[in-house]
Amino acid sequence: MTAEPDGPEDRLRRFATIWSRAVFPVASTSLTRAEFEAELLPLARRLSELLRARGFAAEDARAVGAALVGAHCTDPEALARTLDCVDAYLVLYCGGDGPQDELRMRSSRLQHAMAAGYAQSLRTRTLAEQEAIAQAALQAQGVVAQALHISEARFRAVFEGAAIGIGIADLDGNVLQVNKALLRMFGLSEQSLRGRRVLDWVHPEDAPQTWKLYEELVRGDREHYHVEKAFNRPDGTALWTNLTVSLLRDADGAPQYQLALMEDTTERRLLNLRLRYEATHDALTGLPNRTLFFERLEKALAAGDGQRFGLCYLDLDGFKTINDSLGHAAGDRLLVEVADRLQSCATAPGEMVARLGGDEFVALTTGTDTEREVDELAERIMNALVTPISIDGRDLMVRGSLGIVEGPAGERTAAEVLRSADITMYRAKSAGGNRSELADPEADARAITRHGLTTALPTALERGEFFIEYQPLVHLGDGSVRGAEALVRWLHPQHGVLGPDRFIPLAEHTGLIVPLGRWVLEESIRQARAWRERFGDGTAAGPLRINVNLSPCQLTHPGLVQDTIDILERAGVTPDALCLEVTESALIGADDDRLKPLRRLAEMGVDIALDDFGTGYSNLANLRRLPVSVLKLDRSFTQGMQQFPADPVDLKIVEGIVSLAHSLDLAVTVEGVETGAQAEQLRILGCDTAQGWYYARPGPPERLHDLALADASG
């Protein structure tokens, strides 16, 4: 298949070309550069696949490093150039459109694994050389015992010409002979090195079993051993080696000498340490990153009985505004300053500060008294943000929202702890920010449930999990059914039937309210048509009407009017069968452009009801400019009428509202009617229609059939 111009295959080949040009000068190969590039292309393709893979296959990345050794790239400079090339160009040419921070972190991990694979393969190759040298040394030593000059000359050639360090000592540990490579590794002369004792090279970082293995070897209980060992150089630096020590026996098989073979791994170790640092620290601030923080948190949570942990999760308030107004460079400088201040807050043993990404930071404290320590740590963090930060001559006030989680080790996973801290931090932010909150398991559970509902909303509509219940609207004058309000419900597979208060705010936040509202409107209009077909032009009091709630998001959606027209036409229902309910708060301060869709619908014949009237503190004079035909009086005004005698203040207020509405040719509907006395009082006051449990609870459409038939027969 031919790749498109500048497609993924072209970019992959560019990366392979850059890689081959960088490494070819130091590769020990008889291939031409073009042939060498063709050999690197499959490795480049594998790196590209690993970069974009869902999981991280460390073994495959190590295999790429090992393949470099197989391609005769054994010069240490070849590895360094390869890692520099991968670091600079892999994400650029092979990353695609993925998130750059995540790709760069994955690239760092790939480099680390490649270096490990390269080192392992090179070590295996070196050990094979060492074994060959050891065999030659053994053979030569046996020949020396037989005074054969030719074999001794051969051994001497191998001994002096080897690229690895070789030393021979007696069984008491006195160094007898060393080759030039070993002298270069230690930076010593032959006179100063010969005569030293092996036991003089004990190093603080020696593995516990190192000298036990040595004792077994000089006793003759072991033929050889292999360890990683550090030595001190005269200049104070450390020499790290792969050390193989073998026992040399005489012609009778008695132990006689010890032979040490050393491979200098100092640069490789430093490279691994550098790669490890880059993979576990944030490039901008130098703080530990998410990877290292999770390692420390998991270690803290795995501590023994009596150990506790405390975690502070910080998110800067209004950081996006700084980025948008001053630019990302200024935002980065701000983050560096914040990181420095937070680092100074981690003063006690067992405390660390890390950057998770963006403007999110975490601080961890461990020990037996973290209940007190985490509070002190949180206070230090909040105080560290009080002083303004100067950026480009501007003093910027920095505030943050802090979530605190504290508890015993061993009860929760690292992911659960961080999720709780994240939830708590957002609770602090939603409360106004610039404050800290302590984790609350009940609040966490509610937030997790909200998140679960939010993620399940889109598929719930596709799976048909929503249904509608209808609450009758009754005329207060003659008790006839005039219609019903459509109330959407969610039949959740785990949580059962959920009311609109549980999911409508989530739908508005995610934008799903538009397709959900369209579905409710379609179902309601379909039901209105079914009622009209069943009852003809209506009950004795007139045609039935369906009331459908309209959210603020739907009100501003450009397709509202056309969607409504299309739904009515497809159902074959006239506009007077529909009443759209809009909350008073959604129309407070609305300009003419925002009211234009409602005016068009009203001109078509659709009734517009102002829902929850009396709760929005709007100017009553504004009623004249709103395209509404119905006021739905909030239940808070009529609760005082459930008792006898009714609250006289409530009576006066309702009477005034009804009088005002009627003077503006508006009908008045009352919500929440629960008693007959309340219904009678509202009738006397002149209210037009009502709904509430006194008449019927929301239910299936068949219940309205029964009420309407009873009304018609009465």
Automatic annotation (TrEMBL):
The record's section on InterPro entries has:
Biofilm_reg_signaling, EAL_dom, EAL_sf, GGDEF_dom, Nucleotide_cyclase, PAC, PAS, PAS-assoc_C
Extract the SUPFAM superfamilies matched here: EAL domain-like, Nucleotide cyclase, PYP-like sensor domain (PAS domain)
All copies of the GGDEF domain together span 307-441
Cross-referenced PROSITE patterns, in alphabetical order?
EAL, GGDEF, PAC, PAS
Residue span, PAS domain:
151-221
Matching entries from SMART domains are given as: EAL, GGDEF, PAC, PAS
Q: Taking every annotated instance into account, which residue ranges of this chain make up the domain PAC?
A: 225-277
Which intervals hold domain EAL?
A: 450-712
List the GO biological process terms.
regulation of DNA-templated transcription
NCBIfam families per record: GGDEF, sensory_box
- The protein depicted here goes by the name Diguanylate phosphodiesterase
